[in-house]
Amino acid sequence: MSILGHEEIKDYKTLLKQLFAEFLGTFLYMSLCLLVGNVEPDFTAVALSNGLLIAAVIQIIGPISGGHINPAVTVGVLTCGHIKLVKAVFYIIAQTLGSLLGSIVAYAVIDDNSRHNLGATVPHIDLRADQVFGLEFIMTFILVAVVLSVLDSKRSNVGLGSAPLAIGLSVTACQVSALFYTGSLNPVRSFGPAVVMNIWTKHWVYWLGPILGGVTAGLTYRFILGKRFHLVLAT
Q: Which of 97, 136, 140, 221 has its CA at a distance of 20 to 30 angstroms from the CA of residue 167?
């Protein structure tokens, strides 16, 4: 099979199902998580609701597409060699479109006086861009490493719990630790609200940090932590 993975997209019916699943999952996540983040409850409530929402979405679409709903997860799985480049690019496009539509829906259902910044991710005022980058890198590394570990069929503990819940709670744990400062862990989580609200403050760190964190986690798992990588969920 080639590096680009043209073979993976020949079965276009399966590919379309997978792309729709990624689009739908990202749309569902964004349309609800922005509502929670916009009302400004305590950080623990936001982190817990985000984690449980991610777990629910992965439970729904995981058997179809793998339940990435995050370009950083997609590039991590790509780095591990489980999917090829062409499919990964299509996945990221579907996730981005789902994020945009979900953000538009969230914007539409909130009245003008309650909309605030629509949950747009903006770094804490006292943090430099490199500090935000570092936090996003570390948190996304943890998230992607958890994704790869719980879906590795060669690990002896796989199947002992809920993979979607483990992934969702890893998001909760990271966000509880750092949501006061940052807490995207997902480029399209930041992208949709940025477009809708036209808020681009240090936006690049929400792409570069998570993507590099995902790549590093993928390389680390492939060559150090993993035994023989093979996802339990859909290819």
A: 97
Helix 187-197 to helix 12-38 angle, to the nearest 10 degrees? 60
Tokens of 175: 């966000």
Token duo for residue 172: 């909760």
**Residue 234 falls within a domain, yes or no?**
no
Read off the pTM: 0.91
Distances 214 to 7, 125, 144, 187, 232 between C-alpha atoms, Å? 24, 26, 6, 11, 19
Give the residue from 81, 72, 83, 85 showing the smallest Cα distance to 26. 72
Asked if residue 1 is part of any domain, the answer here is no
Domain that holds residue 44: 6-225
Question: What is the pLDDT at residue 131?
Answer: 94
Query: What pLDDT digit, counting tens, does each position of 124-173 carry?
Result: 888 899 999 999 999 999 999 999 988 777 765 555 668 899 999 999 99
- Token representation of residue 17: 């199902």
Q: What is the residue-averaged pLDDT of the chain?
A: 88
The answer to the question of residue 233 being in a domain is no
pLDDT in tens, 21-64: 999 999 999 999 998 866 656 788 889 999 999 999 999 999 99
Please tell me the distance from the alpha carbon of residue 141 to that of residue 55, in angstroms, as a whole number. Answer: 18
* SS3 annotation, 32-68: HHHHHHHCCCCHHHHHHHHHHHHHHHHHHHHHHHCCC
